[in-house]
Amino acid sequence: MKRLLPTSTAGSLPKPSWLAEPEKLWSLWKLQDSELIDGKQDALRLALQEQQQAGIDIVSDGEQTRQHFVTTFIEHLNGVDFEKRETVRIRNRYDASVPTVVGAVSRQQPVFVDDARFLRSLTDQPIKWALPGPMTMIDTLYDAHYKSREKLAWEFAKILNEEAKELEAAGVDIIQFDEPAFNVFFDEVNDWGVATLERALEGLKCETAVHICYGYGIKANTEWKKTLGSEWRQYEEAFPKLQQSKIDIISLECHNSRVPIDLLELIRGKKVMVGAIDVATNSIETPEEVADTLRKALQFVDADKLYPSTNCGMTPLSRQVARGKLNALSAGAEIVRKELLGK
Ligand SMILES: [Zn+2]
């Protein structure tokens, strides 16, 4: 990436209200069949245009073709029964009714590759594509087949690797694995979480990223955050292993969070997507607030490795708020860019 402080989002953007009910997770599609296919493509075009108008440097599909960042991928796999549901505790935080793994898991066909090819056809800008990470996938399922979280994670890692290689061939520049579970299951992260992540990116020549956050601004997450105390040191547990890993970029929540910024020292040498936009509030950051978060991160991340971004996805926000936040991100990055180049 030649541009200094290239901006991007963590991934998702709100969907248009004609496509799905807005400001909601898992919201149902409002269109069907071929109308749904066309509608998703139109929404992807809009999401791209909104990023471009805000001056975002590394663009995404805004996750317009998926209902949810984990379940949509799993829906395309063999071995998972969506009719057979069990209630499990997601990331030790809230109960949800989830599908059951009933047999060996495998990928029937590419999941997002056509969407990625479509996005590639619309722009020459660098593209980042998000996939769920293996550990976050197993945490959103009931496993009645492997009966081992680790075994299932290795199986998913192989499947993710097949998908990632095809996304790379479709022209994706950065493949990102979303692993919010890395902030919860520290022993497993160190035992096999990072290893399965590395399996998922094996053989890729494009850049790779892992996104680890404190989640959307939904109630279950806000309640959980209240229990974490005055300093959020969760990153400290996975960082040493990640610093040693093959992953190129680490995407983190930094703005308005209680994460001590000096934890970034533990991943010195990696590229860091610094979350400088809070996705858990409707108030729009000023460019100066964004710049302030980036300046703090610059104490621990070399300027050529700092990628300004959002704390997490923006899917539950209104389009107007998301647009304002994209603009603030761009403007804040520009302030710091000028400061750095003026030196
Ligand atoms: Zn996130």
Which structural traits does this protein have?
TIM Barrel, alpha/beta, 6-stranded parallel beta sheet, binds zinc ion, 3-stranded mixed beta sheet, 343 residues, globular
Give a written overview of the molecule.
The chain has 343 residues and is an alpha/beta fold. It has one domain: TIM Barrel (Alpha-Beta Barrel). Helix content is 38%, strand content 17%. It is built from ten helices and nine strands. The chain is globular, with a radius of gyration of 19 Å. It binds zinc ion. Zinc ion binds next to loops.
Going across the biggest sheet, name each strand in turn: 3-5-6-7-8-9
- Supply Rg: 19 Å
CATH architecture: Alpha-Beta Barrel
Main beta-sheet annotation: 6 strands, parallel
Report the strand count. 9
Number of alpha- plus pi-helical segments: 10
What is the ordering of alpha helices and beta strands? Answer: HHEEHEHEHEHEHHEEHEH
User: What is the CATH domain class?
Assistant: Alpha Beta
CATH topology: TIM Barrel
The count of domains is 1
Helix coverage percent: 25-40%
CA-CA gap between termini: 21 Å
What would you call the shape? globular
Instruction: List cofactors, ions and other ligands.
Output: zinc ion
For the residues shown, what is the average pLDDT? Answer: 95
Poorly predicted runs of 5 or more residues: none
Kindly name the structural category: alpha/beta
Strand content: 15-25%
